[in-house]
Amino acid sequence: QLFRYATCPEVFMMLTGLLCSAIHGAALPIMCVVFGRMTDSFVQSGQQLNFTGMAPVAAQVHIKPTLACKLIIREFDIEASMTKYAYYFVGIGFGVLLFGTLQVMLFVLTATKQTMRIREKYFHAILHQQMAWFDTHPIGQLSTRLSDDINTINDGLGDKICIFVQFFCRFLTGIIIGFVFGWKLTLVILAVSPLLAGSAAVWSKILATLTSKELSAYAKAGAVAEEVLVAIRTVVAFNGQQKALYETNLVDAKNFGVKKAITTNVSLGLTQFFLFGTYALAFWYGTKLSVDEPENYSIGRVLTVFYAVMIGSLSLGQGAPNLESIAKARGAAYSIYNTIDTPRPIDSSSKEGLKPDSVKGDIEFKNIYFKYPSRKDVKILQGMSLKVSHGKTVALVGASGCGKSTTIQLLQRFYDPDAGEVTLDGRDVRTLNVRWLRENMGIVSQEPILFGTTIAENIRYGREDATDEDIERAVREANAYDFISKLPDKLNTMVGERGAQLSGGQKQRIAIARALVKNPKILLLDEATSALDTQSESIVQAALDKARAGRTTIVIAHRLSTIRSADVIAGFQEGRVVEQGTHKELMIKKGIYYSLVMQQVLQQLSHKGLTCTGINCICVYDVQTAGGPEEKEMVPDVPFGRILALNKTEWPYLVVGTVASLVGGAVYPCVAILFSKIIGVFSEHDPEVKRQKTLMFSLLFLVIGVVSFFTNFLQGYMFGKSGEILTMRMRSQAFKAILRQDIGWFDDHNNAVGVLTTKLATDASLVKGVTGSRLGLATNTLCALGIAVIVAFIYCWQLTLLILACVPLLTGAHYVQMRAMRGHAFKDSSALEMSGKISTETVENIRTVVALTKEDVFFGKFKESLRKPYRSALCKAPIYGITFAFSQAIPYFVNASIFRFGSWLIAHCYTEFENVYLVFSVIVFSAMSVGQSSSLAPDFAKAKAAAGRILNLLAKIPVIDIYSEAGAKPTNFVGDIEFRDVHFSYPTRPNVKILQGLNVSVAQGQTLALVGGSGCGKSTSIQLLERFYNPASGQVFADRADTLSLNLAWLRSQLGLVSQEPILFDCSIAENIQYGDNSRVVSQQEVEEAARNANIHDFILNLPEKYSTRVGDKGTQLSGGQKQRIAIARALVRKPKVLLLDEATSALDTESEKIVQKALDAARQGRTCIVIAHRLTTIQNADIIAVIQNGQVAEQGTHSQLMAKQGVYYALVNAQVSH
Question: Of 937, 924, 716, 715, nearest to 818 (Cα)?
Fold first, then answer.
């Protein structure tokens, strides 16, 4: 199933690859045979020497020993036999080079081709799923599927399989050679190997559970951190920095971390102990056999069997991770192939269905029942019937959730009704071609989605073959011509991701142009103006009225003033149409429509007419993140000493750990010396001497095993403990340092919440990799290499020089191989980023893509973006193959040269064969151990960068420092606030001037209202008063003292802030209200009093757990109005002298708004109050109303004064009234 997208040639290529890897696998065991034969001939040369007993004779006759040696060597030509073996080695090496290259190259090529095919098929399948499918599959998940899961499949299809086959063949050949050359010894060694395999398996199991426990323990702390950082403005405003419960959750994570470190190292120690035990057993038994049956077992045979079997059984373990990645790939493929195979009842790519030549535009809904597939228990439409005649405008009204938008979605066939039918010109829409149906409709929705391209391209998505004239006509019809012609690139201006560079009204008009350019017969307007401010709204509304002429139009609106001119108004209630008629008829009827209109009218107390409800404001914070080019964070290079200093307090742990590593470093050189001594034993002739010596050496092997176990355990415990303590300290310090920064720092998108939480999670834990374990590794390596080189030079300096020259080659090869083991299945991430961007943008805005029937356009773009990474991957395949094969073949060539030179040295009597083995094994073993330990080492570069980032953060002291004690704390604060000639622009967008000389003041007990268009600096002034930012010039005074001279924490404790979208924390209601004053313990009595004043006490008492009810993450368990009132109670509990209300009611529906407004009016009594509002009705009774335009006060006075003046305020009020 995994390979179902492979073509025939690809299957053939993969089979060839498997054959090559099988041959490659057999190479190493075959080399063992050659090695054994070679050892035999070396031993023979040694035996010659002992046997003739020439040395004593030579001594008597005064011949020089070297001469004597030469006399003997002549009888046995060691050089010739060595040359033969050297050729064998080289031959095997070339074979490995060839087959290794082929196996990897073929697999990477086929995997790349298949992966690309899967990516395309999967994306195509997603694009053509029905909407119901998107309701149940979260969008973020789809993007990860497209990137991570398909990369996982790629891993499984790639070189992992052939490497597994290679290891498996190595295992088979090893065992077979073992049985052929000496079955008794083979059985003994095989009896021990389950111990090795079993211990490894058990440990990995324990490790996995510990890791997951450590992660979940940290996840708790991470959640706390995230909650605080998301709500950073709230935290800062209420001085809640000290209250975050981050540290308490870190202790568990630390304890699991220590356990994990100990476990890892104990398991390493045990493995080594078992390994050395096996050595001891094999050599002891091998000597016994060679004494008992010399005709069957020579030392060469013993070595051949020992190595072939050991290599065989170890390679099973090495091959296993590759199987795991194949299993993972199958898991990932399961869900992806499932999606590709899902039947699609509503498929826009299908050719089926009628495509009538013309559309009149008669629409009828007949007795429709419907519930969303993702929420089966909520009935949306229950027998809804509605008729829309062609060319007429029908408006749907009703409370939210009564099925208005659903109706439009059924017409577009995003869903099919459970019962009943929707017809267009008398035909059931299910019989029509889906694509044709959608092409004949233009839709403008509440939040228009634009794609990250130019304005012209965005409009062209409405109709591909639109000419420039068509676009211009659509733009004029949509009232967008003026603002577009003012832009520097006009229609070719990029709109930014999701249209972020444009304002709401501009986006909305472009969306209208996009709907009009296809000249649809049917126009669907879903709340098209609700998200706009008064000025933009009237422009967009005019555009819509123009667009409706001569088309069948269905309009949904919350603001009833926008639909008075509709031909038919249909009132919805509980999923059916309960009344329909014109505005006049329905007003006489006094049904649903009447009550909705009256509710909206009542809000306009002193003026007859209608006001605008709905969300009028664009959240202030989103805007600031848009600007500024990405700067890369500069990380200073941190010296190792400074990082060690972080761990100063744990020095006893570090010292013990380092000593343990020193001893551990000596283990491998000792093993090598024993090894060569054992081989030397075989040149003895006396069987008794042979026995005694091997017994002694075998026991020494065991001793080394025990030492190795203890050093590993000590290292693990000491470094683990010190590392985890360090991690915990770094995390809590970093968290404190983050909370200390000023708001301007959080605005910078390099410090987005996600970035910061990841920093806390990963950077701190990376740092521990630099301190303890790093020291241990360094001492271990130095010790091992030092001992090895010294010993080697003492025994035979000529050979040592040659070997040292080869060492870089060997370590290089080893390193390349370790990297290859980690999966060559490439992650060509930067190139795939482009396709990721396209797929994410498409999937996130799938409704828009589908409504515009532009699936194929985006699919084409996606295919195009895959082209480049695909080509580069094809080019890389041969390179991977060659590097892999090279790393595998190098050791063969090195062995050939070393032993050939060794034989020359023996032949010319510069050394003995035992020394050749000693030098060879001591250096090879040490190099191996260094390679092993460095592959386990945490990535040093990453850790160093992480340490740099954290130290950077800790050293950063912001201008507005909440931890500083400086500044005055006046005892009697009344609450006179004054802004004097304030200039300001946000640090992330220094070129956009927000305030340009703001002068406004408010005396104690007065209410000051700030009004004006979006982005004129209303909220900014409140943020300056809270000292989230400092003004660029000018001053903000509180009680005639410059706020810069006051103590920051004290100043904030005098202000109570209720913002537009109140953020609550995931704890009980009482705790949320208590958060209002973090300087003391707030009693339950005060909490209840604040709740009473905020008009929510009764609501809380009706909850099952009353004040201990948890509010859920970000307060999700409560409605908007309830959250808003808790936020008011929270602000009141600190008894602030100044109350700041930033759009506190704009996001609420009419009903909740009344309640909250009442609470606010009560809260304002006797306090200085600054209010920001878009809905002018809410602030008519303010003492001073200041109209802000372009960052300055345009006019100020009471409501009646300003109305009399007939200036800016008058115009704003009228704009809302004329609605």
Answer: 937
Burial class (CB in 10 A: 0-12, 13-18, 19+), 1191: buried
* DSSP classification of residue 631: P
Listed in sequence order, the DSSP H helices in 908-986 are 913-936, 940-955
- State whether residue 826 is helix, strand or coil: coil
Tens of pLDDT, residue by residue over 619-629, are 232 333 233 33
Query: Within 10 A of 1015 (CB to CB), how many other CB atoms are there?
Result: 17
Residue 1091 contacts residue 1059 (beta carbons within 8 Å) = no
What would the two tokens of residue 107 be? 């697999």
Confidence of residue 613 (pLDDT cuts 50, 70, 90): very low
When the pLDDT of each residue in the chain is averaged and rounded to a whole number, the result is 76
Q: Extract the tokens encoding 147.
A: 């990137």
CB atoms within 10 A of CB 1161: 13
Q: In this predicted structure, what is the pLDDT of residue 94?
A: 92
- From the list 531, 525, 443, 515, the residue with the least C-alpha distance to 480 is 515
Percent of the chain clearing pLDDT 90 (strictly above): 1
Q: Would strands 1007-1011 and 1184-1189 be described as parallel, antiparallel, or unpaired?
A: parallel
Query: What gap in Å lies between CA 372 and CA 406, rounded to an integer?
Result: 9
Q: Which of 738, 761, 762 is nearest to 750 (CA)?
A: 738
> Contacts for 497-501 with beta carbons within 8 Å, 24 or more apart?
497/452, 497/841, 498/449, 498/450, 498/452, 498/841, 498/845, 499/448, 499/449, 499/450, 499/458, 500/626, 501/626
Question: Using DSSP, how many helices (H) and how many strands (E) does the chain show?
Answer: 45, 20
Task: Express each pLDDT in 869-899 by its tens digit.
Answer: 788 777 777 877 887 788 788 888 888 888 8
What DSSP string describes 167-201? Answer: HHHHHHHHHHHHHHH-HHHHHHHHHHHHHHHHHHH
CA separation for the pair 533, 1186 (Å, rounded):
18
Q: 667 has which bridge partners? A: none
The answer to whether 1091 and 1109 have CB atoms below 8 angstroms apart is no
3-state SS string for 1063-1079: CCCCCEHHHHHHCCCCC
Specify the pLDDT at position 53.
44
What stretches of 938-1086 adopt beta strand conformation (E)?
A: 977-984, 995-1002, 1007-1011, 1033-1038, 1041-1042, 1055-1058
Q: H/E/C letters for each residue in 659-719?
A: HHHHHHHCHHHHHHHHHHHHHHHCCCCCHHHHHHHHHHHHHHHHHHHHHHHHHHHHHHHHH
What one-letter code names the amino acid at 471? I
Say which amino acid occupies 434. Answer: V
Q: Do 1040 and 1011 form a contact (C-beta atoms < 8 A)?
A: no
Q: Are strands 1184-1189 and 1168-1172 parallel, antiparallel or unpaired?
A: unpaired
b/e per residue 138-163 (b: at least 16 CB within 10 A): eeeebbebbbebbbbbbbbbbbbbbb
- Main-chain phi, psi angles of 433, to 5 degrees: -70, 130
Phi/psi for 325 (5° steps) reads: -70, -25
Asked if 956 and 737 touch (Cβ cutoff 8 Å), the reply is yes
Q: Number of C-alpha atoms within 13 angstroms, CB side, residue 453?
A: 13
Query: Are 218 and 271 contacting, i.e. CB atoms less than 8 angstroms apart?
Result: no
pTM, two decimals, is 0.62
Please tell me the predicted confidence (pLDDT) of residue 634. 58
| Distance from C-alpha of 76 to C-alpha of 81, rounded to nearest angstrom | 9
Number of C-beta neighbours around residue 1086 at 10 A: 20
Residue pair 713/266 in contact by the 8 Å Cβ criterion: yes
